[in-house]
Amino acid sequence: MCAQDVVTVHGLRKRYGDIVAVDGVGFAVRRGETFGIVGPNGAGKTTTLEIIEGLRQPDSGRVEVLGLDPQRQPAEVKQRIGVQLQASAYFDFLTLKEILELFGSFYRRRVPALQLLEMVGLRDRAGALLKQLSGGQQQRFSLAAAMVNDPEVVFLDEPTTGLDPQARRSLWDLVREMRSQGRTVILTTHYMEEAEALCDRVAIMDGGRIVALDSPEALVSRLEAPYHIRLRLAQPVEPHQLAVPGVVNVACAADGLGNLYRLQVNSVAESMPLVLSRLAELGMELVDLSVERATLEDVFLALTGKELRD
Amino acid sequence: MLLKLIVADLKMMFRDRVSLFWALAFPVMFMGVFALFNLDRPPQVDMALVEEVPGPLSAPLRQALAQMELFETKDEPSEAEALRKLRNGDYDVVLVLPAAPDGEPARVYYSTAHVQLNQMALSALERFFDEFNLQASGVQPVVRLEQQAVSGRDVGYMDFLVPGILGMGLMQYAIIGMATLLVGYRAKRILRRIQTTPLPVSRFVLAQVAAFLVLSLLQTSVILGAGRLVGADIPGTFFWAFPLALLGNFVFLNIGIVVAGLTSTEPAAAGMGNAIGLPLMFLSGVFFPTDQLPPFLAKAVSFLPLAPLLEALRAVLLDGEPVLTAWREVLLVGVWALVSLALAVRTFRLE
């Protein structure tokens, strides 16, 4: 374990009956970084998180949080971490301020309720009940509730699931603010673009295992073909005719307008001239062209052979 | 830490108006409805009086009947019509007076529907005819019966009912209130959220139990106070009702936790709570004394928690006895407290 690491996990295993939820997971999270665990539903993200938080016992493996063992010293660990559970609610008949004050009373160290509400932009709703808030506001509130003890490590389980794009952006800003305050953030998500937007490093999980772990940038660069060239042509063409040297894969991308092709390439600089001259040879008229860098979505596809879907 | 939580729990219970209604207003309404029926009214015999021509018996009989509260008398023109109504249950007794005192006898018909009541009516009529005959023949009675009244404690139905309603109210709110609350907290993952904090979940539940106990004291005051208002005569001190209410409530709260452990949704929890509470309510002597039950059933319910609790409550409230005269009942409820606590701890689950 490196002195910088606030969370370390070794050989974690957990099964529920016949289902192996977590199958030998290990990683370390450095102080101050935002660490993402991404993967489809059922990949074992939540179970992994809940074992680290001390909510569940692993069948085997070792966990250390802030130099403490969450199984043996759960109360001490819980004093110093903040947790937002996936889809958890709060009390129906207490106001936002009252809920934060109540949760604050469970900790040695506490942040004033109004200051927390200010931070998540709900100061003027201090006297409201939770059911009077929108989905995005409720999610922001649960972030505030995860901060009542001024935690060093914050765990966020699927913080933006079910939110509209605008509410999601506003939540992203809050997560970035936590990072800028020097907190270590560990979050799970099944949105790859969320992991790319927020995380310093990402562990990609599938079937209870970590299949890759690095920065989003490095994960994408490691792909055989980290760039996509998208072409829209005036007429249809056989995909293999576009497979010039350096093109790893050609796919017909379906959209309403038609004749859209996606070429996965290793290097744009090498492949682009070849693609353009092939089009000229074929006498194809180019309607539109764009170049994109591959995403974590593609990384997941390349690693698991599966599409990642909501 | 715990005190703040108990205060917050109470705040939530008071803001949850629907639950509060079941805890406080519902038992009081129940009592009010029973008060409307006036079940303490003395029994009455509906009697038809048939006399074709007023004879010598007519005037003294009517005078005597007017003084007896037992009879509600109506005149009927014909014997046949009166007997038809007797068969239909409109009358309990039909008295046919002869036109002349000698010759034909007076005839009385009575329905077999209310035998006990009609025995009272017949003996009252017999007494009247005996006295009439004695006076008519001028015989001096040899022995007289002198009557003297001593006031005795008469436990009216409302008096009996108020402790019953108290037990019922405590039980229903504790079992169903606790069960649905915990199931809701579990379904909404509030229990898991508590588990992420340094507060042990057991202490969280303990605070909730404490808040319910505090509310049970209020329930006891409101129900007993309302009982007084509707005219129940409760000569004993209210003081001992409070510790008894706490003890009983503790048992029912534990049962509520067990119900929450065995069910997964709020309707299921409420359903199972009622499945436990309603039979207990009807069999344990809330509305009727258990000695009207078949003996084996009365014996069986006397070992369940509600019956001994009601017994102890009635002993201190109605008979004004010190709580220790009901020590057997209190001990039994105490044993239930321990057993139900053990069951609650065993069945409690976070997910």
Structure in a nutshell:
The complex is a heterodimer of chains A (310) and B (351). Chain A has 310 residues and is of the alpha/beta class. Chain A contains 10 helices and 13 strands.
Q: Share of helix among residues of chain B? A: 55-70%
CATH architecture of the largest domain in chain A: 3-Layer(aba) Sandwich
Strand content of chain B: 5-15%
Total number of helical segments of chain A? 10
Instruction: Please give the radius of gyration of chain B in angstroms.
Output: 29 Å
Low-confidence residue ranges of chain A = none
CATH superfamily of the largest domain in chain A: P-loop containing nucleotide triphosphate hydrolases
Q: Please, what is the average pLDDT of chain B?
A: 89
Which class best fits the helix and strand makeup of chain A? Answer: alpha/beta
Give the helix level of chain A as a range of percent. Answer: 25-40%
Strand order of the largest sheet of chain B: 2-1-3-4
Multimerization state: heterodimer
Which key terms come to mind for this protein?
A: 310 residues; Rossmann fold; Alpha-Beta Plaits; 2 domains; six-stranded mixed β-sheet; four-stranded antiparallel β-sheet; 10 helices; 13 strands; B: mainly alpha; four-stranded mixed β-sheet; 4 strands
